[in-house]
Amino acid sequence: MRVLAAMSGGVDSAVAAARAVDAGHDVTGVHLALSAAPATLRHGARGCCTVEDAHDARRAADVLGIPFYVWDLAERFRADVIDDFVDEYAAGRTPNPCLRCNEKIKFSAVLDRALALGFDAIVTGHHARLHDGRLRRSVDAGKDQSYVLAVCSRDQLAHALFPLGDTTKAQVRSEAATRGLAVADKPDSHDICFIADGDTRGFLARRLGATDGPIVDAETGVELGRHAGSFGYTVGQRRGLDIAQPAPGGEPRYVLSIRPADNTVVVGPRTMLAAARIDAERAVWTRGRAPGDAFECTVQLRAHGMTSPATVHVEDATVTATLHEPQVGVASGQALVMYDGDEVLGSATIAAVHAPVPA
């Protein structure tokens, strides 16, 4: 096959491209330029998509002996990932920009262009497996990225290759060293690539304006403190609330909800964070359709952990998941990903969270 290898400049994408070459594919490497001002992106290992990453990707392509190009997707990235990130926080939700990047950039913009140019598939360094067109968890549970790939449709997965799903991260690094790839010991990327200083609250304040508002107790309605913008908080947050008045029993308070309409942050005890039923919208099914109008599965509610057996009901593009084990700190805007064992069934965006019904 003629395949396009998305090369981020990290060790995973480099080894994935190398394995595609070994498999006999006609491989071309591409690095995505995602900022109109690359110098504003992170340097070093704290993020991805940096200037150094572009150089590392080119050097890896040279070692592999494959053609290499840089595609400028800065405007698309700004509109579909950065602006979406800001809009979601402004609406009181907690987005996952890496998931949105997979949905809108890597498996939409990049894949569409690749197919238009005559490529058969794209290959990435994601830690996930594809068996007979079905998306499954990686064998390395600690690096599994099936959650952030669950936004991919069946047609998109039909044109994707994930060569690393059967390999642990330690094995990937060892293989990179054996192949003479300079990125073998490069640290993994972390945080949000388009926030250069790592200050998410400051980034949002510059975009949305810092407007102070009340921090209110959910049980009494009493104002406990002030904040400089409700966008700076997320459901389940405990630290950084700046509340001088302790709870009557001395227990810590957590963010229970954000009300952007009146710029209010609502806090309360951990027990009030429990979620038993979740409504989610914009469902995507990796098999092309839902397993049924109602089915049993395991749902994952954050990129790392927060799983529960659940009963899911489907109506058009919305799902309602009744959790068998209530979870704490579920945030709207995150993805609800449904699994049958290690297979991804589909995903939907969390829209509303409901507490357990009192006995």
Automatic annotation (TrEMBL):
Record EC number: 2.8.1.13
Keyword field: ATP-binding, Cytoplasm, Disulfide bond, Methyltransferase, Nucleotide-binding, RNA-binding, Transferase, tRNA processing, tRNA-binding
SUPFAM superfamilies: Adenine nucleotide alpha hydrolases-like
A GO molecular-function annotation: ATP binding
Cell compartments where the protein resides: Cytoplasm
Domain tRNA-specific 2-thiouridylase MnmA-like C-terminal: 278-350
Presence of the UniProt keyword Hydrolase in the record: no
Reactions it catalyzes: S-sulfanyl-L-cysteinyl-[protein] + uridine(34) in tRNA + AH2 + ATP = 2-thiouridine(34) in tRNA + L-cysteinyl-[protein] + A + AMP + diphosphate + H(+)
BP GO annotations: methylation; tRNA wobble position uridine thiolation
InterPro entries, per the entry: MnmA-like, MnmA-like_C, MnmA-like_central, MnmA-like_central_sf, Rossmann-like_a/b/a_fold
Enzyme class: transferase
Active-site residue list: C101, C193
Region described as Interaction with tRNA: 143-145
Site (Interaction with tRNA): H126, Q334
Stretches assigned to the tRNA-specific 2-thiouridylase MnmA-like central domain: 202-268
GO CC terms in record: cytoplasm
Amino acids binding ATP: A6, M7, S8, G9, G10, V11, D12, S13, L32, G125
Family statement drawn from the similarity comment of this UniProt entry: Belongs to the MnmA/TRMU family.
Xref: NCBIfam families: PRK00143.1 (NF001138), trmU (TIGR00420)
PANTHER family noted in UniProt: MITOCHONDRIAL TRNA-SPECIFIC 2-THIOURIDYLASE 1, TRNA 5-METHYLAMINOMETHYL-2-THIOURIDYLATE -METHYLTRANSFERASE
Name of the protein described by the UniProt record: tRNA-specific 2-thiouridylase MnmA
Lineage: Bacteria, Bacillati, Actinomycetota, Actinomycetes, Jatrophihabitantales
